[in-house]
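ASSEMBLY PREDICTION REQUEST
Request ID: AP-0331
Submitted by: J.K., bench scientist
Number of chains: two
Total residues: 866
Priority: normal
Notes: Please return the full assembly, not individual chains.
Input sequences:
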Amino acid sequence: MNAILSLIAVAGLALIAYIGVSAAGLQFLFGVVVPYVALAVFLIGVISRVVKWGRTPVPFRIPTTCGQQQSFPWIKQAKFDNPSTGGGVIVRMLLEVFLFRSLFSNVKFELREGPKLAYSSAKWLWLGGLAFHWTFFIVLIRHLRLFTDPVPGFLKGIEALDGFLQVGIPGIMISGVVLLGAVTYLFLRRVLIPNVRYISLAADYFPLFLIMGVALSGILMRYVLRVDIVGVKKLTMGLMTFSPGLPEGISVVFYIHLFLVSTLFAYIPFSKIMHLGGVFLSPTRNLANNSRMVRHINPWNYPVDVHTYEEYENDFREKMKKAGIPVEKE
Amino acid sequence: MAKTPKPDELSKIDYTPPQTAWTETPTVYKEGVWCFGAKPKNLETLHFPNPREWRVVDEDWKLPENWQEIVLNGMKERLDKYRSFRVFMDSCVRCGACADKCHFFIGSGDPKNMPVLRAELLRSVYRGNFTLAGKILGKINGARPLTLEVLKEWWYYFFQCTECRRCSVFCPYGIDTAEITMMGRELLNLLGLNIDWIAGPAANCYMKGNHLGLEPHTIVGNLEYMLDDIETVTGIKITPSFNRKGAEILFVTPSGDLFADPGTYTCMGYLMLLHELGLDYTWSTYASEGGNFGFFTSNELAKRLNSKIYAEAKRLGVKWILGGECGHMWRVLNQYMDTWNGPADFLEVPKSPITGTVFENAKSTKMVHIAEFTADLIKHGKLKLDKKRNDNLKVTFHDSCNTSRGMGLFEEPRYIIDNVCNNFYEMDELTTREKTFCCGSGSGLNAGENMELRMRGGLPRANAVKDVAEKYGVNMLANVCAIDRAVLTASMDYWVPSVKVTGVHELVANALIMKGEKERTTNLRGEPLPGMEGQE
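STATUS: Completed
Returned structure:
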């Protein structure tokens, strides 16, 4: 139900762009206004969310320690899984952000007769997630060619690597194909694994379909319908230089693609996609386990009611004396 | 009280989720799963709101009129005070990596025991009340209004989480259900909705200094029993001191060690070791609790209970503090104590008077784990040990959740066990160290009325023990946690009856050759030592 709802929503978005451009002639709205608005919503939304997180205090030092602590020189510390220094934390974060280290350690279980619980490594989610995020990132970077003139050398390098298969004309970009494959995998596991389906909200399917739509329309444009790339670049450079224009003859697929991308960007600040910022601010990952070495300060630490020793002794003085326990007041 | 089903019945677990969405599936309150509600006298002792007689099975939980307002305000306050709470509310992508990591899910198949759904219980209300998308889109965006059903569901499931943090190890964003549960329990406590198994010990600890409510003379009396037993076994008379000013070291351990087997054997281990070293140390009857059931209630109560340790160290004028074997006690000491009640500038950086080792890793908190202390002693050859005395044991080691994922104490206890036992076997590595399974009864859930829940939650740990029991003949489960010693005993009796439970320092004391001891014929439990059968 949640999945169908999300699919309808994404199809509806594509339809809106299609009708808006081909029937109503709203090229300016979909080609200029919407992208600008989306970008503004994205930037303001993401920044304000991150600022909100950043301003919220971290009262306690609560890293999840995933290895041996620092204790004696003769016991080997897990410097990255249980860091006690800033450097260790940075490595831990890099491994997390770029390689999804926590997911790499994923384990699944099986209950057999006996009962016998058997555990084994489970790496598909890690692999699918890694493929998805990295190819998404590469595709995003490649698109910078539409916003730069002349196109910088490193972008050409990335494109050359991405298209190293040299199959087809225009050459197949591996990233786009893998992205579509990975996003399909992420969707399928959500639908096919009963427990994952059970926890899935419309808010989980919607971005998947949206990204699928973006990737499909992109692939369609590049390989099948062959949009007028010169015209597209004119438009994107116009947006980039704040002198927007609407070149003639750009196919409606492009507007659909652009509208879905705009929706995605505008949607990010209000959605779970904010995990891209959250991962950096997670106190269980980005703090060193050094709270016995260095006092961590809680900015809102406040005095509390305590039951003092004096009150305690008043309650038990006679019993203490009888048991031979020294007291303050005889 | 509900009768706990037999193991073969309990281990038939269905992991298929219901046909209806979790938001539409009513919660069934199962006897044997929930704990009794907090009694008014305990809440009054602690000055907690809404003390009253109430029963879980009653329709009316006697909440204040404006309970929704109280909870939502409480939520707002905590969202502004804890970055963890806010980020964890916003960041989850429901990838499902955590779903099958919870011992309660593995043992029950209840989908709301998947950490992601446990968090969604709270997150759905967060979305509906604190996010734009949730306010506009409502149910489509996974938002729920805060109804009485939702509140009761919180109560049921936040007291089915042991704050073990295993899910947090696998989460790509480190989302920690312990944080979620802690926030959930804080909110419930605003309405007087604690369980009595937590509120009772916390009230005891507040007034009497320890969870068990042992009064000062009882503490001395309990230790005297142990000292008599030690004398019987070793021929050595030990006379520890209590509340002694000017001692070099204050020793604090969970009160569970003073009370019941097998914790008492661990306690005898401390007494023997510290005596043998001639350590200038004292016990305290005021700070007679290392553990902290306040930690399972609210941040504020945890701080109130914890304050006694530094206060007593200051009053007695000791140089540093040595802490016994306990799990959540060490999460608190490692990650909270100094922040709450420090700086401990009246203490000195801990230094072992025996080896001269300076405990650099505790230079601010000034509190050392006894496993660190003992490992250092052994490394420096300061203990005479006869491993053969433990030859009747085939030992495996259970990593406690809190010392594992809230500290990283892995090698120290293993090094000790290796030096006091000849037969040590590790369990499946996917169930130890940072991936260790909870005993099933942590975070104050070690009550009697929720035995079915405890046995279900204890299944993954017990099952890994069973595996080494079958493979290597393991018959002893060692650990460094007082709750473990109490509850794993029940869990082993239920799932793997051939395995007993011990603290690490019981093993140390059995192997420890003490100056002037008589020839030992039994271990601390009064069982004949290997080769001494029939010598009594």
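REVIEWER COMMENTS: Residues 27-55 of chain A form the longest helix (29 residues).
SIGN-OFF: pending second reviewer
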